[in-house]
Amino acid sequence: MIEVKDLHKAFGAVKAVDGVSFTARDGEITGLLGPNGAGKTTTLRMLYTLMKPDRGQVLVDGVDAATDALTVRRHQGVLPDARGLYKRLTARENIDYFAHLQGLPDDEVRSRREALIEALDMADIADRRTEGFSQGQRVKTAIARALVHDPRNVILDEPTNGLDVMATRALRQFMLKLKAEGRCVLFSSHIMQEVAALCDRIVVIAHGRVVADETPDALRAQTGEANLEEAFVKLIGTDEGLAA
Amino acid sequence: MNKMETHPLRRSRAFLTVFLKEVRENLRDRRTLISAFLTGPLLTPLLFTMLISFTVNRELDKAEQPLKVPVIGAQYAPNLVGALKAGGVLPQPALANPEQAVRDQQADLVLRISAGYPKAWRKGEPVQVELIYDSSQRDSGTSVDRVTKLVENYSRQQGAMRLVARGLSPALASPVMVAKRDQATAQSRAVLMFNMLPYLFVLTIFIGGMYLAIDLTAGERERQSLEPLFANPVPRWKVFLGKLAAICAFSTASLVICLVAFSVVGRFIPTDKLGMEVHLGPSFALHVLLLQLPLIVLLGALQSLVAAFAKSYREAQTYLSLLMMVPILPSIFLMVMPIKPQHWMYAVPLLGQHLGILDLVRGEGVGAIPLALCLAGTSLAALVAALVTMQLYRSERLAISG
């Protein structure tokens, strides 16, 4: 479970995140929805302790990120906005590197790695160097790498960005599988269909603030719009930056 | 989820994991391999040996070979010309415009004997012969010295004969004599030529680690892999130390290859012709390696520091090329201010290694105190540089690529 309480982060005069609070529960998929530049990535970066909030608190499975960042990182699997793989290493070696950094013993490294390669259907590319991978192959490798230590909490920053239809569908199935395994899945997106199709809970962010935190149904009811797209536009106050 | 706590060994492996991964990844990069293991360490010994052999052989050739000198007015002083011939000078036909010929490098030097020579000679008056040359040309130096010496010898000889003819002792004309007693041993003469050796070693270390230093900081950020890396439960300073160790491994390997190459090609340096003795064997190599070890860490940390400041791979490359100029400073410093090495100088990074290597070339070996000072001083600097870079690694800006 990830609890976020009143996060603030400013870069100079720009308030990127200006009081964000929400809770992402185990066994649920929580969607962080907002237009480009709304503060989604900055919020997530504070969750996985890459950045320190100016104010506010992040609790992961009850552990404070400010005081015990290493434990928080052990409890999370993160697909950051930056997916960078090591292109001179094969997909397997990329996964192994992170498994070793997570401190898994060798037998566990092997079993977890192979399980993920099968679950993500990437056996055919596992022993190829990642240089020249397609966007979809890269995301798969990055996800396998992020989840190799079997984390309870999974954070995905715009996971379907740049994927084709088939890869997007496969990824959605995979996220539902993570949810079924009882994990806490938190992902960001600016695509409302995706959020609507997957999420148990939607947190809408605009201008660094949370403007709604509801189930998809409640969101429709709250805004009085039967169509989710209309509901979002109403919440955000503008249709700028939203993709259909 | 709580498996983590049941494996106490987990934390200590992070350093090794990062180190091994960086080494493995960079062993697969052809450009890094070529610059660290081929061009960097091998080019300098080859160039150095060729340069020295060339210089030595040329100087020797000049001293032995007959020297062709155009002589103007040779007919006025047949005896002088005869003395020059005896000294190995081959008089050439006169030139119309000797000044122009020298400037155009058609002749190294020209000797001019004036028409008044026979008359003045018979009267016993001093006569003048002119040597026309261009000292801005390196080549002329040896030849000018040689001809000057021959003319002076002839002059002294004739002067002595005149004195004897007048019943005086020639010793009267030279109340004070200079006797040169050169204290340089064969090895200490070698030092002059080997002055740039320390810089070559530093350069090798620098080039050996450079591509890694760029790749592991600026490169990793540019490829956006630093952010996922820092999401792992490993303190950033451990990641940095693993990377630093990988840089040091490559630059050390580079230096070792360079030293081995030197001990092989060093045999072809014709030092015996100059009466020099230079030991570039295993003992020299091991001592140089020992002296350079802390410097390897210092340079690796500095390279990482500079590369971490850069926004991109290319920017890091530019900065590091500038940083490469820094190690040449001690060499220049010692060249313009040839001072006696004091103990404290050994504690200064780069300068200490420079002096130490020159001691080794001189065949004296490095004393215990200078050696200790050199290792301690540079180690301290390496520690400071590593701590500063660690601090930089903690900044939020470092990981963000976008």
Describe the protein's architecture and organization:
The complex is a heterodimer of chains A (244) and B (402). By secondary structure, chain A is an alpha/beta fold. Chain A has helices at residues 40-47, 69-74, 91-101, 106-119, 135-147, 165-180, 192-198, 216-223, 228-236; strands spanning 2-11, 14-24, 29-33, 55-60, 63-64, 76-79, 153-157, 184-189, 201-206, 209-214. Chain A folds into two domains: 1-75 and 152-244, P-loop containing nucleotide triphosphate hydrolases (Rossmann fold), CATH 3.40.50.300; 83-150, no CATH class. Chain A has nine helices and ten strands. Chain A has a six-stranded mixed beta sheet, sandwiched between helices. In chain A, helix 8 packs across helix 9. The longest helix of chain A has 16 residues, at 165-180. The relative contact order of chain A is 0.18. The model of chain A has no long low-confidence stretch (mean pLDDT 90). With 402 residues, chain B is mainly α. Chain B folds into two domains: 8-56 and 187-399, no CATH class; 66-181, abc type-2 transporter like fold, CATH 3.40.1710. Chain B is 64% helix and 5% strand. Chain B is built from 17 helices and four strands. The two termini of chain B are 32 Å apart. At the A-B interface, helix 2, strand 6, helix 3 and helix 5 of A face helix 1 and helix 9 of B.
Descriptive tags:
heterodimer; A: 244 residues; alpha/beta; Rossmann fold; 2 domains; four-stranded antiparallel sheet; globular; B: 402 residues; mainly alpha; abc type-2 transporter like fold; four-stranded mixed sheet; 4 strands
